[in-house]
Amino acid sequence: YLDNGNQIFQDARKNHYAVGAYNTNNLEWTRAILQAAEETRTPVLIQVSTGAAKYMGGYKVAKDLVEDQIDAMDISVPVVLNLDHGDFESAKECIALGYSSVMFDGHALSTEENLAKTKEIVKLAHERGISVEAEIGKIGENQGADGGELASVEDAKAFAEAGVDKLACGIGNIHGVYPADWKGLNFDRLKEIADAVSVPLVLHGGSGIPEEQVKKAISLGISKVNINTEFQLAFQEATRKYFEAHKDEDKANKGYDPRKLLLPGTEAITASMKEMIKWLGTPSID
Ligand code: G3H
Ligand code: ZN
Fold it and tell me: Could you tell me which InterPro entries the record lists for this protein (predicted)?
């Protein structure tokens, strides 16, 4: 069964560690993530973006894939399945499908509208024991050194009062690869928000932030760190290396077998996640 993560993330917030939220894309990603979690005996959140769901054939296919792999791999650590950056309709769909957590991302709306829609999602989700993540401020989209729009303390209070279970805040963080002249995370704002609300805080754009900054953010109240690009880079690098080293073997050793071609990249994701778990300080459940 899927865990809604409420205990997991509240415990993380209270005890100043974080649990990774890793985006899946397909069978290989799903298995690589579950394997790293099981080997390290740590709880894990797997998340599905709208784009990844489309790629896999929809939110139901993605959910079935994760659940079937939990069974097939005999996974015994808690797994949270989260919709990542969902719009209102996607959040409702994933609640109906039985995702154990949904993110409603209303950052493009006015604050009032974002809050109103978030409240509707909270009501629908909580009736079913599903947890909700909301977003305040804006996560940058690789367009500049400053990151997106800083979340305000006032918004943090309003969304915490609305009953969200996790809160994603814009604190200078950026999705994708960070620009060379990136200004870094805004720890002053993070601290102000963390002092004002006790809800677990989420750091989006977790790939490529220097280790000391990730650790400092966690010490201040970040309890969930979202990682997507890091695994894509790890997969790409290992796959490229393998292709270059084996380019002459295509026919000789059944070098065209996709199970061989995809293995190095898949293993690189597991290795990268194990490193990340150390950074985040995610404790083993045993
Ligand atoms: O919601 C997903 C994340 O914020 C991932 O960001 O691709 O920069 O690691 P990233
Ligand atoms: Zn994100």
Answer: Aldolase_TIM, Class_II_FBP_aldolase, FBA_II, Fruc_bis_ald_class-2
Assign residue 175 the CATH number of its domain.
3.20.20.70
Is residue 120 domain-resident?
yes
E-assigned strands of 67-164? 79-86, 101-104, 131-136
Residue 71 annotated as catalytic: no
Mean of the pLDDT values across residues 37-62?
A: 98
Question: What is the CA(201)–ligand 2 centre distance, in A?
Answer: 13
Pairing of strands 44-49, 222-227: unpaired
SS percent in the chain: helix, strand, coil, step 5 = 50, 15, 35
Atom 4 in ligand 1: residue holding the nearest Cα: 204
Q: Are 184 and 214 in contact (CB under 8 A)?
A: no
Burial 163-192 (b: 16+ CB within 10 A, else e): ebbbbbbbbbbbbeebbeebeebbbebbbb
So what's the ipTM on this one?
0.99
Total structural domains within the chain = 1
Contacts for 264 with CB less than 8 Å, ≥ 6 apart: 238, 239, 241, 242
Is pLDDT larger for residue 246 or for residue 99? 99
On whether the CB atoms of residues 282 and 43 are closer than 8 A, the answer is: yes
End-to-end alpha carbon distance in the chain: 19
Measured between alpha carbons, how far is residue 85 from residues 62, 139, 145 in Å? 15, 11, 22
The 10s digit of each residue's pLDDT in 181-207 is 999 999 999 999 999 999 999 999 999
Q: Which residue in the list 84, 105, 155, 165 is annotated as catalytic? A: 84
- Summarised one tens digit per residue, pLDDT across range 143-183 is 677 788 999 999 999 999 999 999 999 999 999 999 999 99
- In this structure, is residue 1 part of a structural domain? no
Residue 64 clears pLDDT 90, i.e. is over it: yes
